[in-house]
């Protein structure tokens, strides 16, 4: 009866007018369970929806106590997520703000916001550049700054395309104005403000054009793949091209994919040619076998005809002298038949041996083609799965988990301070650091888990038949392994750490949504100190 009352649609104004109802005596002498039952009864009587807020209000009304002050955690988190982190100080204060919201502490929230404001960036460079005294030193400094701005605009032009003639004309005018002698900074600021607005439109157009081209490329690749379902050579190339057209894009990644794709094309072309030759040889062997069978049949027919002829002559012979030539003819025919039979047997045995060799060669070629096609599903640098391989793994594991009603977790991890490592030690050291990370990760995770490179220094670990707490424990164990197995850059030991977020896939949840939750948890781990594993 009470549950039926909870399911009914309540009047949204009922709680607001609750004060008009007759007041009841506080139940200070009742136990908490009795107060809770009374609160549930009042929810049913007032026909209110059974939300936590309504229940809390009525519980304190029955108990005669004051409800705790409302704390808008969700709204504050939305505000914190929208606040930019333009410097390390602001980034730290935003992490403290997240922690204060989790503790529901107004004092700490206020302290974090005040500290955040103290790290605010100063006025923009153009706003700060006010006209100064017209002396030679100030003019020279202003001219240098304007020249640098002009060069910056020139360097940015190739990325913005040449499709918009009006924008190109406006760019030429701005460059000419910036290089005009005795240009006042106030005038330059006005011109650059207008140009910056037009520049933002051009940049958005180029971004949309790029995304549109990538979408068209992927559509072409998908259609070609559908037309070549049974062609493993073509499927391997299509998978590599799809991987190349998946953001984020950079020149280094495109060069790696181009090198791999050329290698795949060369090996596939070579293997396909060898397979064609083997199949052609097989057809020739079969044709020879059929011809030899025809000759054997013809020879057998001739032999039978001669034997019959000899038999008729023997029947008609009247003396031993007439039988001699007939017997010699029969013996000669028998010997010729025996020679043909032996020759055919030898040829057929040789053909059988060649056929077996061709079968072995074709089997080897199919194995090689499968190996070459698999290259398109693995990252060129680390050897772990790439985005294409990750998508296939996720589809398989999600289907298995839902068929067997098992848990499935995904973890997104990002190497801490990777840009600093690249800048200080070089890109080769950065690549070796990623190799070291994947080597340690493969040893730390379980055989049924899958490791994939998600992009740059980000990796995804798929953990089948694993609940959230166990998945966090596995990632934490990996962090401990990295602290005991240092990355060696020459003779120097370098400690590599990562921040990770883990999410357990919901019953009806899409994998993309689970990855987004893992990414949000990973970002929070970065903001609150790094080298942490958080659940999402």
Q: What order do the SSEs take from the amino end to the carboxyl end, as H and E? A: HHHHHHHHHHHHHHEHHEEHEEEHE
- The secondary structure category is alpha+beta
Number of helical stretches of at least 4 residues? 18
User: What would the principal axes of the Cα set say about the shape?
Assistant: elongated
Helix content: 55-70%
- Mean pLDDT across all residues, rounded? 75
How much of the polypeptide forms β-strand, as a percent range? 5-15%
Strand arrangement in the largest pleated sheet? 2-3-1-6-7
| Uncertain regions spanning at least 5 consecutive residues | 1-27, 121-134
Describe what this molecule looks like in 3D:
The protein has 536 residues and is of the alpha+beta class. It has 18 helices and seven strands. It has helices at residues 2-7, 32-46, 52-63, 73-82, 88-103, 106-118, 125-128, 136-160, 165-178, 185-227, 232-244, 251-316, 320-374, 387-404, 418-425, 427-444, 468-484, 511-527; strands spanning 408-415, 450-455, 458-464, 487-489, 492-494, 498-504, 533-535. The protein has a five-stranded mixed β-sheet, sandwiched between helices. Strands 4-5 form a two-stranded antiparallel sheet. The relative contact order is 0.05. It catalyses: 2 GTP = 3',3'-c-di-GMP + 2 diphosphate.
What keyword list fits this structure?
two-stranded antiparallel ribbon; Rev_trsase/Diguanyl_cyclase; five-stranded mixed β-sheet; disordered N terminus; alpha+beta; 536 residues; Nucleotide_cyclase
Question: Short summary of the structure?
Answer:
The protein is α+β, with helices and mostly antiparallel strands and 536 residues long. It has helices spanning 2-7, 32-46, 52-63, 73-82, 88-103, 106-118, 125-128, 136-160, 165-178, 185-227, 232-244, 251-316, 320-374, 387-404, 418-425, 427-444, 468-484, 511-527, and strands at 408-415, 450-455, 458-464, 487-489, 492-494, 498-504, 533-535.
């Amino acid at each position: 009866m009470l549950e039926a009352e909870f399911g009914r649609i309540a009047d949204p104004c009922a709680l607001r007018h609750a004060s008009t109802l007759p007041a009841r005596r506080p139940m200070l002498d009742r136990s908490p369970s009795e107060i809770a039952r009374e609160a549930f009864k009042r929810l049913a009587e007032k026909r209110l929806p059974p939300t936590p807020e309504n229940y809390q209000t009525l519980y304190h009304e029955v108990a005669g106590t004051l409800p705790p002050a409302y704390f808008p955690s969700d709204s504050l988190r939305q505000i914190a997520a929208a606040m930019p982190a333009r410097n390390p100080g602001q980034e730290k204060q935003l992490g403290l703000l997240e922690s204060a919201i989790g503790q529901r502490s107004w004092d700490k929230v206020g302290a974090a916001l005040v500290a955040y404001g103290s790290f605010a960036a100063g006025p923009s460079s153009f706003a700060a550049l006010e006209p100064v005294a017209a002396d030679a030193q100030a003019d020279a400094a202003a001219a240098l700054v304007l020249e640098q701005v002009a060069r910056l605009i020139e360097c940015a032009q190739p990325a913005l395309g040449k499709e918009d003639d009006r924008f190109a004309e406006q760019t030429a005018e701005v460059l000419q104005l910036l290089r005009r002698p005795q240009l006042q900074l106030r005038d330059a600021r006005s011109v650059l403000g207008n140009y910056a607005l037009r520049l933002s439109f051009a940049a958005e157009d180029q971004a949309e054009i790029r995304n549109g081209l990538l979408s068209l490329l992927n559509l072409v690749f998908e259609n070609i793949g559908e037309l070549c379902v049974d062609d493993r050579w073509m499927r391997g190339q299509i998978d590599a091209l799809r991987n190349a057209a998946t953001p984020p894009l950079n020149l280094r990644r495109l060069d790696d994919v181009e090198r791999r794709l050329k290698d795949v094309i060369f090996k596939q072309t070579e293997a396909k040619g060898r397979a064609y030759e083997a199949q052609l040889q097989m057809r020739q062997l079969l044709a020879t076998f059929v011809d030899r069978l025809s000759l054997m049949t013809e020879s057998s027919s001739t032999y039978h005809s001669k034997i019959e002829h000899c038999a008729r002559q023997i029947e008609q012979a009247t003396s031993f002298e007439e039988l001699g030539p007939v017997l010699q003819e029969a013996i000669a025919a028998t010997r010729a038949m025996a020679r043909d039979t032996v020759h055919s047997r030898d040829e057929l045995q040789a053909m059988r041996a060649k056929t077996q060799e061709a079968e072995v060669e074709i089997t080897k070629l199919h194995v090689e083609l499968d190996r070459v096609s698999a290259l398109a599903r693995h990252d060129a640098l680390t050897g772990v799965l790439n985005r294409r391989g990750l998508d296939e793994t996720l589809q398989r594991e999600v289907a298995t988990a839902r068929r067997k009603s098992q848990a499935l977790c995904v973890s997104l991890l990002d190497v801490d301070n990777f840009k600093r490592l690249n800048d200080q030690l070089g890109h080769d050291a950065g690549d070796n650091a990623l190799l070291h990370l994947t080597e340690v990760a493969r040893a730390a995770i379980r055989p049924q888990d899958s490791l994939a490179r998600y992009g740059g220094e980000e990796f995804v670990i798929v953990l089948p038949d694993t609940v959230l707490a166990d998945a966090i424990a596995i990632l934490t164990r990996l962090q401990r392994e990295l602290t005991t197995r240092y990355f060696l850059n020459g003779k120097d030991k370098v400690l590599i750490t990562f921040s990770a977020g883990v999410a357990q896939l919901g019953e009806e949840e899409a994998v993309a949504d689970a990855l987004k939750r893992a990414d949000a948890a990973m970002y929070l781990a970065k903001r609150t100190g790094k080298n942490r594993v958080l659940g999402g």
